[in-house]
Amino acid sequence: MASSINAVEDQLSKTLESLQTEEKSSSLQEKIDEIISSYNEKENRKVNLRFKAIGRTPLLRKNVFAINASHRFDKVIRFLKKELGFKPDSSLLLYVNYCFAPAPDEIIGNLYDNFSVDGYLLIYYCVNVAFG
Amino acid sequence: MKQQRDSIPELVWNGNISVEIHQKENSLTYLANLPRHSYFAQILEDLKRLFAPKVALEECWLSSGKASIKWHWPVGVLYDLLSQEDPESATSVPVLWHLVFHVGSFPSSLVVPMGSMETFRTCFFNALKESDYVRNGSSSLVIALSKPETDTYWNSLLNHDFYDYRPIATKLFTSKSRIIPLKIYLGADAPIVQSSASLGYTLGQVLHKQLPRLFPSAVMYSLLKPVLHGIVLPSTVSTDIMNRDFCYPDGFLHIVLIPIST
After folding, report:
1. Of A33, A98, B215, B217, whose CB neighbour count within 10 A is largest?
2. What's the burial of A28, exposed, middle or buried (CB within 10 Å: 0-12/13-18/19+)?
């Protein structure tokens, strides 16, 4: 996790340096906006997801996928339903590391940075509530 | 005795924000003091009953200016983030936060619809499990809560009862763990940096380590400053104190960064 943040920061430092040399008079707010917008660009990386079925839930033919880190988690839910041939409004529950269900608007990159194991974000899925 | 009772966690718990909610072309107005620790999810049903009793809850949503409101984020986080108000500025006075209630044209790319209170309960406890996972490498402390404890915790949030809330929160957040979960909001339209920090550091050190370009110094703020519960936290505050006194009920420290006014 630390390494990916460092990578972001490296890119930011370059942006900031060019800002400082080009526009010495740029206001603090412009500087902040510039740094923040390079965060958004940085999220163009792809991260790996690994799916595991719980109980009698249908299996996937392939269970490893790469996805854009800037997407929200609901993208994963929609994607998995499609892969399994489920209707969009059907019930499907996804748990990170067999522990918690992220909110649909959490950012995949954040989940990956905090909870990935050996380079994969592990997502367990099932049709019925697996645990309380 | 008075001093003891007004402990910092209790003062933080009792922080609230006055809101005024109206609907376009409707003469009714909803006024309330919402605890910073509460959620808009807790009043959405009341608002629906007042403004649009016949529609489904899933079609109802709130906005503040151009921003749509996430019902599953704490009210205090949303206010600090969307108002970008500097608590240290001399002009800041008690405010009435104006919000608008909407039905239909649901901004589904921005907000998740709320089906019922059960949707919110599931969402809240999953956020709590997520923060527990950061602290302990599993959600075992939340799962180990007994049914009465879980219900007490949930009801303490709904009833805003500090004395029911605090013992369970202490049990969950001040365990043997040395790691605390952070969500750092870079701005209203900017990304959230979700991360973790160890106990035994100062906030300045944590911000400098996580975001060295935005926080070039570990001692002093130069571009942005961190706001938590409407308070600008000094760079010298320790992560131990933040964890003990400043966690939101979902177990996270939600830190909003606001520009330093010049």
Report:
1. B215
2. middle
- For residues B166 and B199, state if they share a domain: no
ipTM of the complex: 0.90
Summarised one tens digit per residue, pLDDT across range A84-114 is: 999 988 889 999 999 999 999 999 999 999 9
Q: How many domains does chain B have?
A: 3
In a domain, B113, yes or no: no
The answer to whether residue A74 neighbours chain B at the CB level (below 8 Å) is yes
CATH no. for residue B221? 3.10.20.90
Of A9, A102, A105, the CB nearest to B130: A102
The domain locations on chain A are 2-42, 46-126
* CATH code for the structural domain at A46-126: 3.10.20.90
Which of B130, B133, B180 should be substituted to probe chain A, the one whose Cβ sees the most A Cβ atoms within 10 Å?
B130
| Cα A7–chain centre separation | 16
pLDDT tens sequence across A28-43: 788 888 888 877 777 7
Domain assignment present for B245:
yes
